[in-house]
Design a protein that fits this description.
The protein is about 50% helix and about 20% strand. It has helices at about 1-50, 60-90, 100-110, 115-125, 200-215, 255-270, 280-285; strands at about 135-140, 145-155, 155-160, 165-170, 175-180, 185-195, 230-235, 240-250. With about 300 residues, it is α+β, with helices and mostly antiparallel strands. The chain folds into three domains: about 1-90; about 125-180, SH3 type barrels; about 185-285, Alpha-Beta Plaits, CATH 3.30.70.100. Residues about 290-298 have low confidence and may be disordered. The strands form two sheets. A five-stranded antiparallel β-sheet has the order 4-3-2-1-5. A three-stranded antiparallel β-sheet has the order 6-8-7. Helix 1 (about 1-50) packs antiparallel against helix 2.
Length: about 300
């Protein structure tokens, strides 16, 4: 009789609370798919709106990252609510779990300080718009420097793609400093080594002409925000004098503008009879090749 009574109780629970548990699990699965689909739809709209554009606005990059984070948070909240409802269907007294949950929460707080730190750091990265999807950044951590293009930003980690195609996952709590090389505008720095036996006034005049003409250059003129400036002598060495040029460019295009200006300067120097020393020529040509550091994500 006892066995039959227990069996009937189990059948009754399965027909009532058990069915509700199954429905809750199905609802959680469906809502998870719906949230993911909505998030992908919105990010897809942002991608389609800026398809073919070389530069995204800061609002678009921030919105792209924010949608991803909101979808993750929404799924987490959904699982917590569904879990509570399932526990209630199993007859668990949640009030009685308050004290153990407090102790468990304190233990997890001490044991998972790194995770909490990651979430807090990720929150401030998004709230302060330090960087977002598509930005070219250089992140300094306790273990080194990671540079690349931001592919994803969550509350816990930032995922970068390096120039070599490597995916780098950086916990937000480990980031000491972040350098955003594509926010609002960028600056190209061109150091031109001129031989000391050359006519410095003539070299300065040639560089000034290059600065005026580069604004209308068919290849990079659209990337230059205003006329570059000849800052003057940067340093004096035994055989050469280094003259520095500065150009304000659109975000992420400082290297392209810098390479183009170096190529134009070499051509103009040859035309004006200014012969560079072999070491100076090698230094300028090296600047025309994209280095591994500082541009690790373009």
């Amino acid at each position: 009789m006892r066995i039959e009574g227990n069996f009937e109780g189990i059948l009754t629970w399965l027909a009532n609370q058990g069915l509700e548990v199954v429905l809750l699990v199905l609802v959680a699965a469906l809502l998870t798919r719906a949230i993911g689909k909505i998030a992908r739809m919105w990010t897809g709209r942002i991608d389609a709106r800026h398809e073919g554009e070389e530069f995204w606005s800061e609002e678009a990059k921030h919105l792209h990252s924010l949608i991803q984070v909101i979808s993750y948070v929404a799924v987490g909240v959904l699982y917590i609510l569904i879990g509570i409802q399932i526990l209630l269907r199993f007859g668990v007294n949640l009030v009685a779990l308050v004290a153990p949950a407090t102790v468990l929460g304190a233990a997890l707080g001490f044991g998972a300080q790194k995770i909490v730190q990651d979430f807090l750091a990720g929150f401030f990265v998004l709230a302060e718009r330090q960087y977002g999807y598509g930005d070219i950044v250089e992140l300094t951590t306790s273990t080194g420097v990671s540079a690349g293009t931001v592919e994803d930003v969550t509350l816990r980690v930032t995922r970068l793609r390096t120039l070599d195609g490597e995916a780098v996952i950086v916990p937000n709590g480990q980031i000491i400093t972040s350098v955003n090389q594509s926010q609002d505008w960028a600056r190209a720095i061109i150091d031109v080594p001129v031989p000391n036996n050359a006519d410095m006034d003539k070299a300065h005049e040639v560089l000034a002409e290059v600065c005026r003409e580069i604004v209308d250059d068919e290849r990079v003129g659209a990337y230059v925000l205003d006329e570059p400036t000849v800052m003057g002598v940067q340093s004096i060495k035994l055989e050469q004098t280094v003259i520095r040029l500065l150009a304000r460019t659109k975000p992420g295009m400082q290297w392209e503008v810098g390479r183009r200006m170096r190529a134009v300067i070499l051509r103009r120097f040859r035309a004006e009879g200014i012969v560079l020393e072999p070491e100076a020529l090698a230094a300028i040509r090296a600047g025309m090749v994209r280095p591994q550091t500082g541009e690790g994500a373009v």
